[in-house]
Design a protein that fits this description.
CATH superfamily of the largest domain: GAF domain
Strand order of the largest sheet: 6-5-4-9-8-7
Strand content: 15-25%
Largest sheet: 6 strands, antiparallel
Radius of gyration: 20 Å
CATH architecture of the largest domain: 2-Layer Sandwich
Number of domains: 2
CATH class of the largest domain: Alpha Beta
Order of helices and strands: HEHHEEHHEEEHHHEEEHH
Number of strands: 9
Distance between the termini: 20 Å
Number of helices: 10
Length: 264
């Protein structure tokens, strides 16, 4: 019989000292990543609350490092291919992605939903690190690297159910969330308790009206959630596939990933 390891005490996230130049450079990259079109230095400076000359110095360094491209004709900036090299390196080392990608591909193909793997970053946000896109004509648009508030949707219910976070901070974050159809705090708490019992959570049109999201937690050595596998689809489509059926497959994928990551 396999002996269970004692639950480890939750580790506190170290407090990082602010380095303004680094913080501004990262903010610049994120802004350019979100923007649908290249931006000029003044637009970037306004969006980030920077002095244009400071913004220009940051951009010149990023261009020199090939993380940002500069168009001489338009005088606009956009992300450059150097970002892709970094991203590819991260994905190659991401054992979670390698473990769940084949199973998520199968789940997406079988049920016609978007199947996603996310990494948890405390109560700040979750990051999409794996995706299997549906071939259905009506589908949800999500990309690798997309970031979402940690407590939003089904993933957030799992995070509270399988995490160890201060109640006061959880409530503060919950009140700041933006939903299409916000659940009451009482309902949200009940759904968190259901997630603990069932091993998965569901958001039936709260986050995005008409869209159902299912999530199952991937647990680390301390028994807390480090990642999650998620299915996202139009509500009627998910109902036709069978909520319990999709949830059971998600839970199986999550358990498999938990076991392999713990053994690594």
């Amino acid at each position: 019989m396999k002996r269970k390891r004692p639950a480890a005490a939750p580790r506190r996230k170290p407090v990082a000292r602010q380095v303004p130049a680094v913080t501004r450079a990262i903010a610049t990259l994120r802004l350019l990543g979100r923007s649908p079109e290249p931006l000029g230095v003044n637009a970037i400076a306004r969006a980030l609350g920077l002095i244009p000359s400071t913004c220009l110095h940051i951009l010149r360094v990023l261009v020199a490092e090939e993380l940002v491209a500069f168009d001489e004709e338009t005088k606009h900036y956009s992300l450059d291919d150097g970002i892709l090299a970094i991203a590819r390196s991260v994905l190659r080392r991401n054992s979670f992605a390698r473990i769940v990608q084949p199973s998520l591909d199968q789940l997406s193909k079988r049920f016609g939903v978007a199947a996603i793997g996310v990494k948890v970053s405390g109560l700040d946000h979750v990051i999409v690190v794996v995706i299997a896109k549906s071939e259905q004509p009506l589908r949800i648009h999500v990309e690798i690297g997309s970031r979402f508030p940690a407590l939003i949707s089904a993933t957030g219910r799992c995070l509270v159910a399988f995490g160890d976070y201060p109640e006061r901070e959880v409530l503060s974050r919950f009140r700041s969330l933006r939903w299409d159809r916000p659940p009451t705090l009482k309902t949200w708490r009940a759904e968190i308790e259901a997630a603990k019992r069932n091993g998965y959570s569901i958001d039936a049109g709260n986050y995005i009206d008409g869209v159902t999201v299912l999530a199952a937690p991937v647990l680390g050595r301390g028994g807390t959630m480090t990642h999650a596998v998620v299915a996202v689809g139009v509500t009627e489509q998910v109902r036709r596939a069978g909520i319990e059926t999709v949830a059971d497959e998600l839970k199986a994928i999550a358990r498999h990933a938990s076991d392999l990551l713990e053994a690594a």
